[in-house]
Amino acid sequence: MDFLETARTEGIRLRSWAQGNHKATCPRCSANRRKKTDPCLSVTVFADRVRWNCHHCQWTGGAGGEDFRRSPNREVRMFNRPVRIDKPERPDKMLAWFAGRGISAATVEHMGIYLTRQWFPQIEAEANCIAFPYEWAGTLRNVKYRDNEKNFRQEKNPEPVLYNADAIKPGEDLIFVEGEMDVLAFIEAGLSNVVSLPNGAPDRPEQSDRRYEPLATHAEALEAAGRIFIATDMDGPGELLAQELARRLGKDRCWRVTFPADDATTTKDANECLMQFGKDVLRARVENAQPWPIDGLYGVDEFSDAVLATYRGEGPKPLTVGMGRDMDQAFKVLPGQFVVVTGIPNHGKSRWLDQAAVSMSELHGWRWAVFSPETGSENHIIDLCEIKTGLPFHDGPTMRMDEEQLHTAMQWTRERFVFIDSGEHTPSIDWVLEKARAAVLRNGINALIVDPYNELEAGRPERMTETEFVSQLISKCKRFAKVHGVTVFMVAHPTKISNPAGGKEPIPGLYDIAGSAHWRNKADAGLVVYRDYEERCTMVISRKIRRQPICGHPGAVKFWFMTATRRFDPAAGSYQALGEKAEPNARRAA
Does the predicted model carry a pTM greater than 0.70? Predict the structure, then answer.
């Protein structure tokens, strides 16, 4: 059965391929999880098709079946709604436990908390537990349960919403904490504008977006909210959560709340602060919160933690683009940078950048927003599907991808790419960055591609030169990149290069990019893609690397474009370092 072979090719391994429901480890995420043997992949085998869905990384797919081949659209996601308890029990023993943690019976009742009994897979037994209802807009969306041993579970397949989501108000401040008890602590202190993610904080950096799905559910409300006060726990996981929340919500409107710590007493979260110091101190921690460091004047102490984290290898790390060791010598990607990519038209710069995006999605779980009016969103998706499958989309001498392969590639692309499309109007960079900012919150993007620059609206004040306009545009992109931790790739064409001697076209430099020398001067990294028609190869040249040596050294790497697979293959051992002399200029050289 061909459809079962397709599933095996995807890496799915079952003990039996008999018709029915099966559980297995996920080939996409299980190897990177702490519980590597957790059977998080649900697989259903039918007589003529197979479907699968990972409950951890949300990877879905299938093979076979006429309905599957005919429609590549995403299936409508359905959620279970828990049944509301008519007469919730709040025994004195439970209320006394809350009182011991500084939470009054009135707050417990106001939040609808009650005692129940549930099955916990961690202990493979039923246990008495506290139930935290997740209400939103008058509807019960989820219930989270906690037993005496701090084991947690939720309703099966719940709608991803924030705890206390009705607290989000347009234009008003909002506090983000790490758990339900911290929400209750702030409510007890008189600050009801507080929410929490249902799945707490990660214990290490993760590729799955599942933890942050509630941010997409409430995206419009969060975008309309005022300042964001991040009051996660004062430990490693809490800091990881704080950094990702600030990146998605926008560091320029985030404030960091810390909790008291001295030689005698240390409090790591809001509930401990309430218990040890009381309501007034907890409120004061919000009043004395510090803006997320972006602009202004700061001392060394404000950055000491970040410096130490980088020294210990805990901060942002340069990432391989996944296109060979030689390319790693010339260029690595550092989150939050501005990278300019140039090259003569039709020399392959867009295709090479697309392959880097696909590779980084596979290796690092990156998600991308793409503004590509020159190629068009539909054609761009076709290019990505070709790179992903290693097969042509159109008829030709090489066998093209079939509809099943196209569907699988589109599903993969759908989960990792969003497209910014302006329709008939020519947008400004402000418009593009506004849409990209929404994609950070809704989709958790890690990178933005603008391809090319000359498709942006270029109107400028009467007395502003093009050089000043380009400088301001790059500054806006760099600020967006820094605030959101998003790497911005800008494709920019060079001016027409003089070649009076004829023969091979000169290789352009970053100073040859149309509009301004600022493309070279202000970029964090600059790449040139050049097709050598005589050698029948493509050179990718890193002309500028600001963060040497961690992000590579300026140099040239050779690639072969394979028409059968529609991919660039690196030529092993081809890296050649560039000299220390100034950036060459093709027009002067000519």
Answer: yes
